[in-house]
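Incident review: delayed structure delivery

Summary: a single-chain prediction request sat in the queue longer than the usual turnaround. Root cause was a stuck worker, restarted by the on-call engineer. No data loss occurred. The affected request and its eventual output are reproduced below so the record is complete for anyone auditing the incident later.

Affected input:
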Amino acid sequence: MEAFGEAARRACEAGFRVIEIHAAHGYLIHEFLSPLSNLRTDAYGGSFENRTRILREIIAAVRKSWPERAPLFVRISATDWMENGWDIEQSVELAGQVKGLGVDLIDCSSGGNVARAKIPVGPGYQTPFAERIRRETGIMTSAVGMITAPAQAEHIIATGQADAVEIAREFLRDPYWPLRAARELGQAVPWPVQYLRAAPEGSKARVAADFKSLDACVREEAEAVQRR
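Output delivered after worker restart:
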């Protein structure tokens, strides 16, 4: 647990202002959460409370080293897509628990723990998980997975299915996806000054983000850690 806390501290010192605990896709934490992979008989195995214990302890360790006002996300696999595995009902219960521990957003993915799982991949196929967790627990969620079109992403946000949309592979295909999305959705956004000659008429140059308030928050946290 201490290693996770130390990693959060280093991330803060390196200038990161949002971090995410990866508890999905068959990695270590997910292996503890899922009854299909967690066969332990000690305090970290068996019941839901025991299987989720490691994540709660990791969150507590991270929050001690991460500024209170800086966002902390947790990525989960909302289901194993397997009978008797981790499922959306357990994900809802977990989200409700970690909300009280200082987690700001649940990043709702799925699968990755069992190779033989049959996953119904399709456009927005994981979005219902984000919608249900958000609705039943009140915690913010992000939707991920096969979200490729600007109108699709906008619909998810506008209809309250999630608070954010996270995109990965589509950025590999199109690094300028945010600029294209803004154009298709009729939104004016600032462009990098180097690209202004290619921007829509009237576009303004992007200016550096102001992190002064967060920097002050980081300093306050560092001083608090020293006092402890």
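Verification: The first helix runs from residue 2 to 13.
Action items: add queue-age alerting; document worker restart procedure.
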